[in-house]
Amino acid sequence: MNLTALVLLAFAMSTDAFAAAIGKGAAMRKPKFLQALRIGLLFGVIEAITPLIGWFAGSVATKWVSEWDHWIAFVLLLVLGARMIREGFSGGDEDVPPEPQNQSVLMLALTAVATSIDAMAVGVGLAFVDVSIVEASLLIGLATTIMVTIGVMVGRLLGSVIGKRAEIIGGVVLIGVGAVILYEHLGA
């Protein structure tokens, strides 16, 4: 994978967290930049760790599936992307009441873990391609930190409509990255 694909992957992985951050920002009265940055850093660290966990699990399996690795990465990204698109089109969260102003670190961490499960699955897929997992994880964490910080700051203004669109765009990007991986491997 080249750097452009990694950056696109990183921002695609951050869209779930971005959508959640918009909701968090909308629930806060007037989020300050330092509050948003702390939330962004929490999400970013968790989002950077989960692909490492997935990569280690996937690395154990590489010797058994090396002939199919590009297909595995493609299918994982395709399924994750399709799930994100489906969730982006679903109207599930409109009737949920806003959360209280003071967010506990535990609740924020649980939200961050919930939005980073897909990054763990991507980490499994990355174990099957030629990529620096440390570089990929750092980029995913940085992109998530940036996106969550922005999401919290503008959440009150943008509401949940943009959050759903962010998930749709992120899903399309994931499918695109999977297609590029498949194309590069089959074309080699």
UniProtKB/TrEMBL annotation:
- Give me the segments passing through the membrane: 35-56, 105-129, 136-162, 168-186
- Asked whether the UniProt record includes Secreted among its keywords, one would answer no
Topology versus the membrane: Multi-pass membrane protein
Q: What does this protein do?
A: Probably functions as a manganese efflux pump.
Instruction: Tell me the protein's name.
Output: Putative manganese efflux pump MntP
Which UniProt keywords are present, listed alphabetically? Answer: Cell membrane, Ion transport, Manganese, Membrane, Signal, Transmembrane, Transmembrane helix, Transport
- Family the entry assigns: Belongs to the MntP (TC 9.B.29) family.
Which gene carries the instructions for this protein? mntP
HAMAP family under this entry?
MntP_pump
Q: Which Pfam families match?
A: Mntp (PF02659)
Q: What main location does UniProt list?
A: membrane
Protein's UniProt keywords contain Lipid metabolism: no
Q: Where in the cell is it found?
A: Cell membrane
NCBIfam families the UniProt entry points to: PRK11469.1
Signal sequence region: 1-19
